[in-house]
Amino acid sequence: MKPSRDLVGAIALSAALVAGCGVPPGQPRAGSEPLTPGEVVEFAALYGDNCAGCHGPNGRGGAAIALGNPVYLGIVDESTMRDRIANGVSGTSMPAFAQHAGGTLTEQQIDALVIGIRSRWGRPGILDNANPPSYAPRSAGDVRRGEAAYQTYCESCHGPGGRGGQKGSAITNDSFLALASDQGLRTIVIAGRPELGAPDWRGNVAGRQMSEQEITDVVSWLASHRTATPGKPYFTARGE
């Protein structure tokens, strides 16, 4: 005996109603809820929201160094990079991003940034046989030796006294130095800024790369140009 058309229609309608009633009225379906800011772990979103404004889209550099520079990624280790992101760099424009340090990112989000930066833009083995300088200095710097090293390796681009030249910006400018830590200066000297045409420590003078000590000395010379009141070229009427 075949079921009647009315019975078949009733069964189909009931099935549709049951399927539509899997979620109570007014409640979102599973997977449709937007993520809260603390739940986002997708690298592109995290980098775009927190890093690209200074370090440029896709790590290409901007006001700050290019995080997509393989030489930079070859000299900085994962734990150091994580510490910089989490805790920032005091006295510079690099803020702390970790929640425990007053930022907005969770530990998982910071891990996602570190892993993403290194996996996307690093080039394992890029510094093999290059004998790269250490990321952090291993000895004290000497200002006088640093001035001589600057004249040898840097002056042709950045001009006498670091006041700027046809190929490079002023790097003894008090406002610039107020925003750059000694480690930041060292990082630039070693890794260069390829997005601006600045070579790494091997490319300033043909056939002669900077030594570990020369890099340390140049940074000391640059740091010696910091002033107590950067960005104040004149005194006010009250002498302030």
Relevant terms:
single chain, 240 residues, mainly alpha, Cytochrome Bc1 Complex, Chain D, domain 2, 11 helices, 42% helix, elongated
How is this structure best summarized?
By secondary structure, the chain is an all-alpha fold.
Give an overview of the whole structure.
By secondary structure, the protein is mostly helical. Among the domains are: 83 residues, Cytochrome c-like domain (Cytochrome Bc1 Complex, Chain D, domain 2); 81 residues, Orthogonal Bundle (Cytochrome Bc1 Complex, Chain D, domain 2). Helix content is 42%, strand content 0%. The mean pLDDT is 88.
Fold topology:
Blueprint: H1 5-20, H2 43-50, H3 52-55, H4 70-75, H5 78-87, H6 107-121, H7 143-153, H8 155-158, H9 174-178, H10 182-191, H11 212-223
Helix pairs in contact: 5-6, 7-11, 10-11
- Which architecture name of the domain at 39-121 does CATH use? Orthogonal Bundle
> Could you tell me the strand content as a percent range?
under 5%
The third-level CATH topology of the domain at 39-121 is Cytochrome Bc1 Complex, Chain D, domain 2
Helix percent reads 40-55%
Q: How would you characterize the largest beta sheet?
A: none
* Ends apart, CA distance between termini: 103 Å
